[in-house]
Amino acid sequence: MRLLLWHVHGAWTTAFVQGRHEYVVPVLPGRGPDGRGRAQTYEWPDSVTELAPDALREEPLDAVVYQRPHELELARTWLGRELPAVYVEHNAPQGRIAELRHPVAGREDLTLVHVTHFNALFWDAGPTPVRVIEHGIVDPGARYTGELPRAAVVINEARRRGRVTGTDLLERFRRAAPVDLFGMDAPALGGWDLSQAELHDAMAARRVYLHPIRWTSLGLSLLEAMHLGMPVVALGTTEAWEAVPPEAGVVSTRRDVLEAALRRLVADPAEARERGAAARAAALSRYGLERFLAEWDELLAAVVPAGAGAR
Q: Which of the four CATH numbers 3.40.50.300, 3.40.50.2000, 2.40.128.120, 3.90.400.10 does domain 148-286 have?
């Protein structure tokens, strides 16, 4: 199939475009949010093509993968035709529980795909068909050394997102063990902003991965840390209970329990390595790339009429 999608979330898109299809991503001058084109910091296969909006109207396409509400209008304007569609919701809903109606709720002409069961549980989609396809990760390999008795945290926009990402908790965790922050604006908070390859090596050198995020869909950095072979200390919120089995680390909503676990694992490299191996095994089993792509193939085959061909 030939699929149109916007380059919105780099890590998720990197996994998605590893499939057997052809992928078209819009590109605009300046590569802004609606036209980033091909990734500049991730490795993407040659099956991904970037095209300007004015070239899309005549481009043969089988389906559209939406990820933001305004993309539906962009597609109408840029394509001038309707195509089979799915809408991927990456985020947990914000606001009062009784008012968490999804932007495509009531649309029976497309399928709403959630990346976690938590999201599917909390979003109100009405009669819109809903499917959960959990994350898949391009395996960075078992790089864990844990040579540094420190914890790694990855938070993008840590200052702006504040309590949502648990940025305010870092100083308290630092009283239990040294904590290193990585992310897009981490240097402003004394941390590091690294390339993907550099980040994975830096994470793997730390003894523990700390996941302090209060409210998130499911941080892909957490799953990447588990793939690396890192033990995990995580807030027991949203999907973390599903992602991190007991043998892979400690998940709790009690700060004292998390602090004690962080202190213990940083001080005990043998336990940290054992739990990290369990984390990697769990991540490969549940969040492997092969399962992710197979589920997407199954859904796309159901969404696009048989024999339709690129249109």
A: 3.40.50.2000
